Amino acid sequence: MTQAETITPSAQQWLRYWRNSLADAESGRGALTKKELGQTESLESTFYREGRLPPEHSVLQKLFKGEPESVRLVRVMLRPAVYKVLQEHGAKKQALFPDVITPLICGLWVSRDGHLIPAEPPVIPRDLLRPQADDRFTLADVADQDRFLSKAEPKVWSESEAQTLLEKSEQDEHQTRWKTYYNISRQLFDELCPKELLKTAFVSADEARIVKVDEQQGAAHHIIKLYDWLSTTDKPLPLLDTYALAKVEQYQACVEPLSGMSNRLGHANTLYPLAVAQRDALAQVMAMEEGEVLAVNGPPGTGKTTFVLSAVASLWVKAALDQIEPPLIVAASTNNQAVTNVLEAFAKEFEETDDAFGGRWLPEITSYGGYYPARSKENEAAKHYQTPSFYRRIESPEYLDSAESLFMQRARQALGDETLDRIDSVREQLHQRLESKQAQLSTLQQHWTV
After folding, report:
1. pLDDT at res. 153
2. Which of 180, 195, 213 is a domain's end point?
3. Residues 61-68: contacts with CB under 8 Å, at least 24 apart
4. Residue 307's domain spans which residues?
5. Which of 34, 41, 251, 374 has a Cα-to-Cα distance from 363 of 20 to 30 A?
6. 189-218 average pLDDT score
7. Torsion angle, CA of 357/359/361/364, rounded to 10 degrees?
8. Total number of domains in the chain
């Protein structure tokens, strides 16, 4: 299957547009107001050349203020050069130039002992590059920067890679690594920033500026990597085509809920049966094809989470009936609280009765959902949710041995067969029971419709 057969050219164009727009936003802004400049910390330019802040420096202390002791690195944006617009006869040339420009930005990691480690290539901010909707003030062309960075290929490190560097690198190695990055950033500035313009319209502030990067901005790096993967994969992506190209040109009638009754295979608990609107939505979910989108809307307290739990339960049971891997379901939101609310529902609202089939057959698992916060937040999140460290631990051989023993013990008790000694045999019996229940649902539906 070729790429052309999986993602349409138009969808590829949208992917490229979204990817580049996010990359442009991630590069930061180079034209600032004095107020925006005041929200950053001033540094001597020598620290940029040396690649390290003194451990006792007040700015370094501010960058790590409020961070747990376990956090060894923070993300920062360094602006190595600051230029302020020249005044003419005591007045600013506001109609022609910004108040302040920082024509170079470096995305870095900073360690607790002050080492600067490259996290992103150095860039001239996108708002200072052509093309722009208004090219009244720009320094260079974005294509020239792309060519420079493609040729120079400055080395950068992820957070985990930077952690490893801190553990293994000597001071001399750090200086050599930083000198390479520093030289590339200086060369980028020298080749693309017009010196005459900077000299005649601005005056150097003889300082650098640094600011801590929030998690949302740092996370864009991973989203850009996802866009790059989507644009090159040979896997079919029907949902992307539907979303990017707006293929649905008119609203479609929902599936008749009664016709899909036999597909309502799972539910969260016996206390909260589905209301009519929830049953309509669930019937639609179970009848959806690849790439289709269903929008469910409702104010707080109208049962959206209960519906989601039933949809997940039904999809998982269907996967078990089809003897395939259950779907991986992602809960995403611009609001962390919305995600944790779903996770808490996955932990508490799936009913567990006292009978042999009603409890969990695997030890230590307390929820059907996992939480993937920022690495710096994982220690705190792990107190309440199943985080990546939890999954790394339970995927160990030691856990698997103990889990298999408990699973077989619970299976013998539930199925009433003390001779069971293989997981495959348990799976076969459970599958037969599921098929029997589905057959009962189908029979009920047939009688109901008569």
Report:
1. 93
2. 213
3. 63/110, 63/210, 63/212, 64/112, 67/376, 68/376, 68/379, 68/380
4. 255-449
5. 374
6. 86
7. 180
8. 2
Distance of CA 18 to the CA centre of its chain: 15
Residue 117: Cβ-neighbour burial (10 angstroms; 0-12, 13-18, 19+) = buried
Q: Which of 213, 231, 263 finishes a domain?
A: 213
Distance between CA atoms of residues 241 and 11, nearest Å: 6
Looking at the structure, tell me whether residues 438 and 294 fall in a common domain.
yes
Same domain for 171 and 279, yes or no, is no
My answer on whether 192 and 270 are in the same domain is no
Residue 5 maps to a domain: no
Place 280 in a pLDDT band, splitting at 50, 70 and 90: confident
Amino acid at 446: Q
Mean pLDDT along residues 280-292: 88
Of 367, 357, 364, 368, residue with least CA distance to 430: 357
By residue count, the chain amounts to 450
User: 279 and 196 in one domain?
Assistant: no
Ramachandran category for residue 425: left, alpha or beta (phi over 0 → left; psi -120 to 50 → alpha) = alpha
149 occurs within a structural domain? yes
Which residues, 6 or more positions from 356, have their beta carbon under 8 angstroms from its beta carbon? Answer: 410, 413, 414
Cβ atoms of 139 and 103 closer than 8 Å: yes
Pair 259, 204 in one domain: no
